[in-house]
C-alpha cells in the first residue's frame, strides 16, 4: 500500500489535502532536498512537486528518474506555470531519440 | 586495424569467429528491441504530453478557484476547514513489463467508499467558492495519477532506449568491425605462415635432392655432353 505526497510551498498545495494526499509544506530548497529524500525513501509511490521547488531540486530529482519508485511529477504552483513540466517531457524525447522531433516545432 | 594485439593462432581465430556470430546476432536483436521500444515510446510520449497539458490546465483552474475561495474567507477559517482531511487516497502499485522495461501500474483506492466524499468541513462557515475549488481539484486527480504512471513509464523507457541505442552503436561501429578486422588479420597471417612453410619445404626438398643426386654437377656437365654429340 503506497501513499501520495505533494511537496511545495503551503499556499500552492493546501488544496490537495482535502483529496486525501499527504501535503508536505517545504519553504526553501535546503530543507526541500532533505525532505524529498526522506519522502522518497518511505512508502510514497507518487510525489507531486511544484515546478518552482523542483527547479531548485533538479539534481535530487534526477536521481530518482531511473528508479521505478517513486514517480516524481511536476505540477504548476500557485504562481503559475513555468513550463518546466512540459520541458521535462521534451527532454525525455531528446534523451530517447537524440533530438526533439515531436514537440520541437511547437 | 588490429589495434589490440591478437595472437595469430587457429584457436584465437575460432574464438573470434564465434564472437562475431554472437555480436551480429546480438546486434540484430538489440536493433529490433530499440525499434520496438521507440515505436511504443513515441505513442506513449504523445499521450503523455496531451495528459500533462490537460492536468496543468486543470490545476491552474483549481488554483484560481482556491485563490477566489481564500479571498472570501479568513485564513484561519480556511485552514481549519482543510485541517483534517476526510478522504484518503492509497495506491496499489504493480508493474508491467514492456520490452524488458518494468513500468509501474498504479491503482488507486479511496478510504471512504464514495470518491466524492471530499469536503472535510461543514458548509456553514465556509464560502461556497471553496466547495467549487475542492471539486475542481478532485476532478483533476484521476488524470494526475494517470500522468504519474505515464510520465514514469516515459522516463524509464527513454533511459532504456538510450542504453539500447548505445549498445547497438557500439556493436555496429566498434565490436563488429574490430572483430572482422582481427579475423582478417589472423587469416592472412596464417595463410602467410602456410605459404612460408610450403616454400621452406620445397627449398629443403630441393636441397635434399641436390645432396642425393648431385644435379648441379650433371646440369653443368650437360651442355658439354650435348656439344660433343653434335
From TrEMBL, chain A:
Keyword Ion transport set for record: yes
Swiss-Prot/TrEMBL keywords: Ion transport, Transport
According to its UniProt record, what is one Pfam family this protein matches? ATP-synt_F
Q: Name one GO molecular function term.
A: proton-transporting ATPase activity, rotational mechanism
Q: Does the keyword Coiled coil apply?
A: no
Return the similarity comment: Belongs to the V-ATPase F subunit family.
Q: Give the protein's recorded name.
A: V-type ATP synthase subunit F
Automatic annotation (TrEMBL), chain B:
- List, in alphabetical order, the Gene Ontology terms for molecular function in this entry: ATP binding; proton-transporting ATP synthase activity, rotational mechanism; proton-transporting ATPase activity, rotational mechanism
Q: Which Pfam families is this protein grouped with?
A: ATP-synt_D (PF01813)
Biological processes annotated in GO: proton motive force-driven plasma membrane ATP synthesis
Q: Which UniProt keywords apply?
A: ATP synthesis, Hydrogen ion transport, Ion transport, Transport
Recorded superkingdom: Bacteria
Q: Does the keyword Transport apply?
A: yes
Coiled-coil region: none
Q: Which HAMAP family match?
A: ATP_synth_D_arch
Family as reported in the entry's similarity comment: Belongs to the V-ATPase D subunit family.
NCBIfam families (alphabetical): PRK00373.1-2, V_ATPase_subD
Role played:
Produces ATP from ADP in the presence of a proton gradient across the membrane.
Q: What is this protein called?
A: V-type ATP synthase subunit D
